[in-house]
């Protein structure tokens, strides 16, 4: 396994752990999306990647207030997240909201 350490179990990065949630949301598996989102946020509450992917998941499943808050926090922690959000189609459902921080 690339990046793994001999004798230690593989631990996915915060991005890997949270990107599954956004992927499941895209396919309509909202229950699984929420479960993976919740676990990624519990494991990495102040990491911008899980926060950003949570925003994507929430935008797709219709949890718009949570999506806007997680996106705001992701940008606060990682200013590049504003660039990611600018054209991320998973965020289309919240893009017209005046609170959308990805502008």
CATH class: Mainly Alpha
Strand content: under 5%
What share of the residues lie within helices? 55-70%
Distance between the termini: 38 Å
**Could you say which overall geometry the principal axes of the C-alpha atoms support?**
globular
Query: How would you name the oligomeric state of the polypeptide chains in this document?
Result: single chain
* Rg result: 14 Å
CATH superfamily: Tetratricopeptide repeat domain
Query: How many discrete structural domains?
Result: 1
Output the structural class.
Answer: mainly alpha
Report the mean per-residue pLDDT as an integer: 89
**Poorly predicted sequence stretches spanning 5 or more consecutive residues:** none
What does the model show?
The chain is 59% helix and 0% strand. It has one domain (14-94): Serine Threonine Protein Phosphatase 5, Tetratricopeptide repeat, CATH 1.25.40. The chain contains five helices and no strands. The protein is globular and about 50 Å long. The chain has 103 residues and is mainly α.
Briefly summarize what is shown.
By secondary structure, this protein is mainly α. The protein has helices spanning 14-26, 30-43, 48-61, 64-77, 81-86. The protein is globular.
Write the layout of secondary structure elements.
Blueprint lengths: L13 H13 L3 H14 L4 H14 L2 H14 L3 H6 L17
Helix pairs in contact: 1-2, 1-3, 2-3, 3-4
